[in-house]
# Entry
Amino acid sequence: VTVNTNKFKVTANDGSLAIATDKFTVAGGSGNTVIAGTLGVTGAATLSSTLTVTSGTTTLSTLSAGATTVSSTLGVTGDVTVNTNKFKVTANDGSLAIATDKFTVAGGSGNTVIAGTLGVTGAATLSSTLAVTGETTLSSQLKLAND
# Structure
């Protein structure tokens, strides 16, 4: 069926559809659809396979099902929250928080707070004051040097 000189055409032998020749096509054999312009969706869209973006920018406001692989740079302009604040990066100052308050880094200063025990297996170099507010245990010699 051809309407208005190929403006709307359905091919009978395979069920293909073409509107304005190549602006919107559906391949009859596979169902593959090509849209030459912008696709606007006002309701929810469910994809049961791969979403591929070949150029431009992809903006996702909600991505909730299955594993996601990013093969290039992932740019995030807002906060990043993983598993309800188990891991959070705050965009406005670059602060980092793991498990809300178990390990935090203040974005502005770099000050770090560790709620549990800090274990260091190698040497530790401190370039400023060491302040200890609780009991201190030394398991080897304490050597004091006065410069």
Notes: The two ends are 96 Å apart (CA to CA). The chain has a mean pLDDT of 80. The first strand starts at residue 2 and ends at 3.
